[in-house]
Amino acid sequence: MTWSATARGAHQPDNTAFTQQRLPAWQPLLSAGIALPLFFCAGLAFIGLGLGLYYSSNGIKELEYDYTGNPGTGNCSVCAQAGQGRAPPPSCSCAWCFALPELFQGPVYLYYELSNFYQNNRRYGVSRDDAQLSGLPSALHHPVNECAPYQLSAAGLPIAPCGAIANSLFNDSFSLWHQRQPGGPYVEVPLDRTGIAWWTDYHVKFRNPPLVNGSLALAFQGTAPPPNWPRPVYDLSSDPNNTGFINQDFVVWMRTAALPTFRKLYARIRQGNYSAGLPRGAYCVNIIYNYPVRAFGGHKRLIFSSISWMGGKNPFLGIAYLVVGSLCILTGFVMLVVYIRYQDQNDEDEDEQ
Amino acid sequence: MFCSEKKLLEVERKVKANDREYNEKFQYADNRIHTSKYNILTFLPINLFEQFQRVANAYFLFLLILQLIPEISSLTWFTTIVPLVLVITMTAVKDATDDCFRHKSDNQVNNRQSEVLIDGKLQNEKWMNVKVGDIIKLENNQFVAADLLLLSSSEPHGLCYIETAELDGETNLKVRHALAVTSELGADISRLAKFDGIVVCEAPNNKLDKFTGVLSWKDSKYPLNNEKIILRGCVLRNTSWCFGMVIFAGPDTKLMQNSGKTKFKRTSIDRLMNTLVLWIFGFLVCLGIILAIGNSIWEKQVGDQFRSFLFWKEGEKNSVFSGFLTFWSYIIILNTVVPISLYVSVEVIRLGHSYFINWDRKMYYSGKATPAEARTTTLNEELGQIEYVFSDKTGTLTQNIMTFKKCSINGRIYGEVQDDLGRKTDITKKKEPVDFSVNSQAERTFQFFDHNLMEAIKLGDPKVHEFLRLLALCHTVMSEENSAGQLIYQVQSPDEGALVTAARNFGFTFKSRTPETITIEELGTLVTYQLLAFLDFNNIRKRMSVIVRNPKGQIKLYSKGADTILFEKLHPSNEDLLTLTSDHLSEFAGEGLRTLAIAYRDLDDKYFKEWHKMLEDANTATDERDERIAGLYEEIERDLMLLGATAVEDKLQEGVIETVTSLSLANIKIWVLTGDKQETAINIGYACNMLTDDMNDVFIIAGNTAAEVREELRKAKENLFGQNRSFSNGHVVFEKKQQLELASVVEETITGDYALVINGHSLAHALESDVKNDLLELACMCKTVVCCRVTPLQKAQVVELVKKYRNAVTLAIGDGANDVSMIKSKRTLTQWGMLHTWSPRGAHIGVGISGQEGLQAVLASDYSFAQFRYLQRLLLVHGRWSYFRMCKFLCYFFYKNFAFTLVHFWFGFFCGFSAQTVYDQWFITLFNIVYTSLPVLAMGIFDQDVNDQNSMDYPQLYQPGQQNLLFNKRKFLICMAHGIYTSLALFFIPYGAFYNAAGEDGQHLADYQSFAVTMATSLVIVVSVQIALDTSYWTVVNHVFIWGSIATYFSILFTMHSNGIFAIFPNQFPFVGNARHSLTQKCIWLVILLTTVASVMPVVAFRFLKVDLFPTLSDQLRQRQKAQKKARPLHSRRPQTRRSSSRRSGYAFAHQEGYGELITSGKNMRAKNLPPTSGLEKTLYNSTSWIENLCKKTTDTVSSFSQDKTVKL
């Protein structure tokens, strides 16, 4: 109202740095003294880093084999042909044999790679129930709606694990055989399949439901396996620490990939004679070919790879660092030139004044 | 107002006095007022309803609804609802507190006490219980509770005086008078209680100066008009009591009808922002369509074959349908380009700036203990873009205080101060003023520094005595004694007040007057002069004279007037003195003083008698009366003996000259719109350096007809272009014809300074549509424009003209009610279906000078402070900073959100256009409101490029704001490009690095969640580095917010990825363990580092080069400021205070003619002041006519809105 206005604010404002906008402040300026050294230093550092990254990435050996089985690409094409259009495809095995002329420096990791596989599709990605996978008994029997249409089986039983991701579990399996001498016997190379999942995934995120009478099978009673699965989840492995929701292959699969071409760790080779790497000789990978990818134009690959201090082989980062570093130096020079010319001009101007 | 519908039907109001039962039939509003909007119950629904009427809120509600549809919900509902609830709660809290204050003030007003006549007795009642038809008693200095019909008062003839400052801001008293029949009721309670008149009148409306109605009482009807009505909000003055009957109460009163809601003002940044938001929506839809098409193609080519892993319900397999759903999904995901927090942040920043204005001690006026006040919190950055300032004169540029400064008596100047060496010096505080303490009648506030005059008086210089005697006799001042026995002068014009007060202090005190006598105290002795004739002032005569007979029997004519006029009337013997005085006048004028020449004439008895007889004849004549009188006046006012001249200072407000100079350096054009006369206005123009003698030309447009005005404008233009052509060596200026677009081009080519002075009459013609453009074109090329004798409506029209055709940001500053129209934006008056004939809108920003002429201007204003000079600080410091900060804020905000959101677009190409988000949903929810809001807010509130001193010292710094350089569509596109670039870096560097990569432990790295965390972390770091770069003024707050934001990000990240929270909500926090795992990988930090450097380095390089190659003034100053903490001004910015010396003397009386008649008739004198003899009879004899006369004059004064004020000295 109008009449009260006179009485308001008849006080002098406080004389504080805050109210008077005089707060002490650091007023950085983009001066040549800062910007130029910054660019040159950053450029040099980046080039250094880039070189390091590039060479360590190049030092990593990779052995890759596409076993999709497209016609005429090796003996897996038989399996691919056999599995064409049949669900579930019949079990079929094929092999990939190769020779190593020299030691494949270890530790060696075995990956499988799928391409054109959209694990990052939203509808695919949301189709899971983390509560169920964390072993909550209530969630086990009541999967979330996001899992639909893999929420309930045809019989109306809740599916465990529910959802499209679990349903599409990668189920090829590999074994590696080594022939030390030509004509010698093939010895199976031990594959360490235990530490392939993230620690947190294996210990926190994925938990089996509480055992019923000491039996995991009973705990899963009243649930149905995903339609594509030949066996129920508690039968994934005979090892009680690697079955059910905490089966490492399953856990690795459930950590969905960001990109449509992705690798997932299958095993490490670090035991026995192979702790230093794969010695030279002939090798064969025996592949149990189950997983159909040709229908959507996907590819399956097997990769042996070692790693360096910065991870697996990836030349991109090294090159990117080199490029950015060089650009920094280049820009630095441009700035330097401009700065010097401007300085001259400025001095002249001041002289004129 | 729920009752308004019903009230629309009221076309006529019927009120019966003292009859509540009768009046209740009509259900008139009672006197309770409600300015509050809500009560406890209605708050939530009404407030929510109001809030969702805002486009932004409605848009987010729409998004929320979209998100609830599972098929398209790409984000969970909480990403939208959390910010929305936050925003709505904040607004609701603000609305609630505002309303609380309104409730409080309502209660305070409603609970005021008034005396109401109930059941034949006067009873105390609260205002809110007063009903229509009640008779209430008012006492002196009380606020009027409702619109009343005046019945009777303590004064004769049922007169009462009111002050209407609250209504129209005018502090002069107005007279209201009761009907003769009702004024007879007096204070007789029993008779008043029996009063049962019925008033039939118009329905409630907002016209303050109009009222029509009829009172029916005792079988006769009496017409009622505005003169019988006292409005709510007025204060009763000089009247010990009065009785009135309530006609309109509460919301129906004219005051409340006038306090309509003001239209919401928007700043140009607001409008730009709205346009940009529309652009962004368009952009959003485009992105959505691209992605939807992509989705359709993908579904057809890839998704269809992917069927064993992906699924669609039967019937949804159609790829086009999938694309349609995807479109909406992407609209949801990408909505963060226009985050809701933008609107809130803008409001918060403006609020902060408003507080800084309120807190600024350099805009606090200790003299009146008034701090500056930002009454609107939404316009601050517009203060940094002002191009035109429209200023009132009186009370704004000037203090409306006239001080007697100097005089020239008989060829000698008094009032100049000389130092010991005899040189002229400026008057400083150190100099001892003349001591008036011996004179008991002296006015304390009057100061005079030249002791010579006092000496001359003591020495008895007859000319000096005559001079002062003249000042004490020849005027229209009325005197009064207050309770303390002090003499109080009621003056019509402050000039006269100054002269009479000066005479009083020098011992010639005007004591009292009757219609026939004037009593003065001459150096302690009372002398009564007989007033024989009063030759009044008018515009043509420009002088006034009195003819008096002194006690010795001598008849003298005393005259004062404009020198040009008076000098022609002098006796030839005055030649020498005339030259001398003339020089003095020039000198006075050069100092910006208002001058008057003073002369007298001795008359012999016989001559006067003859003349007087002729005058009486002329007075009674029917034909050519005025001409005959004028002739007679001419006849007697000749052969005058020159006494000297006076110089009165129309005191400018402090710092006006500096402010004006500084603002014009800032390229702000100042137009003076004043109700004053042309001479006065020009004088002031010179005084405050708006007009100077260095100007090439000052065009004066003073035509009386449309044709004349057009011709004058045309000539002025021709003149201007002609002169300019010669100046600018034949610039091509002939195509400028009436093309306003070209005007600005032409404007650039104009060299030299021009000024335009236009008066109200001409303005009325010039504002007609066909001449308007000429006027505008001319005016805009002039450095200074002075409009004089303008009405409030014209003020608003001028503002509107410039606003509309120049597309410039305008500011109006004023102090009085007559400035309200230009200050205030249009009111909504549609409640009664009535609109003003043409109500132009006011300036973009209205500034009120507080504490001068009532509150109206302040109440209507957006900003208020006590002194004109604070405008400099308001614009150059606060406005500039506000604009600077707001622009920086907007640039950064848009950049940030483009960078944040567009990553989803790139990702779309790699995830089958499936509307998969890149980030964690929680990150999307919190990014804008938690992780990045505070640093940018701190920048928006605290940032400064140069400090306040430099902002004031270099007014040129203001120009980027006027030219809209810091944030415009181009800048927006640059921000957008910057954002897009960053989003590319943010997406493709991790993409390349993650492609088939493995972690240090050999485990695969490129999982969706790690990717999301990497990108989110890079984003937070990149935008934090960017804000760190943008922040040029790192206060503690900035440090805390910037570092704190990063710290907050990491702590929230680790919390949300922790085991504990996953155990509680496994489905809501599926990122468990991610931060731990990803952020311990060297490779990921390398990615983050690379992304940051790649995003920021180009910006750094660009800025460095820009500062080096095209440094702005602000850049230079920053460097200078850095180099030497205490930067000295580049050039001497001391404004020139030297005034030009051309003669601009003029009769500076601001009052209207005709008061002399009132004085000689004694009509405006209280009965008790009159001698008990003939005077009373005379008064009674023509009582009706003189009241009408007086009232007519009062209304004239009101309606002409001239600056005439009755000022109490």
UniProtKB/TrEMBL annotation, chain A:
Transmembrane segment boundaries: 34-55, 316-340
Keyword Repeat assigned: no
Entry GO terms, CC: endoplasmic reticulum; endoplasmic reticulum membrane; Golgi apparatus; phospholipid-translocating ATPase complex; plasma membrane
InterPro entries recorded: CDC50/LEM3_fam (IPR005045)
Gene Ontology annotations of biological process type: phospholipid translocation; positive regulation of protein exit from endoplasmic reticulum
Subcellular location field: Membrane
Pfam families: CDC50
Keywords of this entry: Membrane, Transmembrane, Transmembrane helix
UniProt GO molecular function: aminophospholipid flippase activity
Similarity remark: Belongs to the CDC50/LEM3 family.
Record protein name field: Cell cycle control protein
Organism whose genome encodes this protein: Equus caballus (Horse)
From TrEMBL, chain B:
Binding site for ATP: 392-394, 496, 537, 560, 594, 674-676, 789, 795, 818-819
Residues the entry annotates as binding Mg(2+): 392, 394, 815, 819
Biased segments, Basic residues type: 1121-1142
TM annotation in the entry: 75-93, 276-298, 318-344, 889-910, 922-942, 972-991, 1011-1029, 1041-1064, 1084-1105
Topology term for the membrane: Multi-pass membrane protein
Active site: 392 (4-aspartylphosphate intermediate)
Annotated source species: Equus caballus
GO biological process: phospholipid transport
Catalyzed reactions per annotation: ATP + H2O + phospholipidSide 1 = ADP + phosphate + phospholipidSide 2
GO molecular-function term, one example from the UniProt record: ATP binding
PROSITE patterns xrefs: ATPASE_E1_E2
Name of a matching Pfam family: PhoLip_ATPase_C
Region annotation (Disordered) ranges: 1121-1148
Limits of the P-type ATPase C-terminal domain: 858-1112
Any one annotated GO CC term: phospholipid-translocating ATPase complex
Family: Belongs to the cation transport ATPase (P-type) (TC 3.A.3) family. Type IV subfamily.
Compartment annotation: Endomembrane system; Membrane
Name of the featured protein: Phospholipid-transporting ATPase
The protein's required cofactors: Mg(2+)
Keyword annotations from UniProtKB, A to Z: ATP-binding, Magnesium, Membrane, Metal-binding, Nucleotide-binding, Translocase, Transmembrane, Transmembrane helix, Transport
Enzyme category, top tier: translocase
UniProt-listed InterPro entries: ATPase_P-typ_cyto_dom_N (IPR023299), ATPase_P-typ_P_site (IPR018303), ATPase_P-typ_TM_dom_sf (IPR023298), ATPase_P-typ_transduc_dom_A_sf (IPR008250), HAD-like_sf (IPR036412), HAD_sf (IPR023214), P-type_ATPase_IV (IPR006539), P-type_ATPase_N (IPR032631)
EC code(s) of this entry: 7.6.2.1
Record domain P-type ATPase N-terminal: where: 15-81
